[in-house]
Amino acid sequence: MERSPVEPMSPLLAAELFEQGRIHPHDRPMLAAQWLTEGRGGEALVELASLRGAEPEVSDLWPAALAELGIPLQTTPRAAMAWAAQQVVEGKRDTRWLVRTLWTEFDAFDEQDDFQRLILLLDDTLDWTDRDLRSRDPETRETAQLARDRLQAAIELMARDDEGAALAHLRRSGA
């Protein structure tokens, strides 16, 4: 079965999605070639772009190419937020997928970390609205549907890379 070509994306997003296992390892040379056509580059990026994807050198060159582009080896799910939210806005993925993509194993919940709060609010809202949308009570279903509409608006803000506005919207709406 033939894989579809990898979509163009920023190096930071590619680094995070690769770490999450959402980019096939063999797509790294194509990404490098795309970045070269954008005028970015260095020796490792050129060498990576010249490979087919199956060579063991790809794994060695990937971190070096990212370093040439100024991408830290440890990225965060925050880097993937706008891209993942856009997938939901465009109807390519659902909201549960978005939460799974952005969820991290938080060592400890940090009340001051807006990104953690945002993802936890998304998850909590999905949980209670899933339950309440199946309710026999019309008012309960209506309240849940309104919350889902507010959730969708927050995801649209996330797609615009506005984490703060998305969180503020969810907090204001009582989600």
Explain this structure.
The mean pLDDT is 86. The chain has helices spanning 11-19, 28-37, 43-49, 57-68, 81-89, 95-102, 114-132, 138-159, 163-173. With 175 residues, it is mostly helical. The termini are far apart. It has two domains: 11-68, no CATH class; 77-173, no CATH class. 61% of the residues lie in helices and 0% in strands. The radius of gyration is 19 Å and the shape is elongated.
Q: Helices and strands: which structural class?
A: mainly alpha
Unreliable spans = none
Describe the main β-sheet briefly.
Answer: none
Distance between the termini: 43 Å
Count structural domains.
2
Q: For this entry, what is the oligomeric state of its chains?
A: single chain
Return the average pLDDT rounded to an integer: 86
Shape label: elongated
What's the total number of strands? 0
**Order of SSEs, N→C?**
HHHHHHHHH
Question: What share of the residues lie within helices?
Answer: 55-70%
Strand content: under 5%
Radius of gyration: 19 Å
Q: Tally the helices: what do you get?
A: 9
Question: What's the arrangement of secondary structure elements?
Answer:
Layout: H1 11-19, H2 28-37, H3 43-49, H4 57-68, H5 81-89, H6 95-102, H7 114-132, H8 138-159, H9 163-173
Keywords:
175 residues; mainly alpha; 2 domains; 9 helices; 61% helix; 0% strand; elongated
Structure, briefly:
The chain is mainly alpha-helical and 175 residues long.
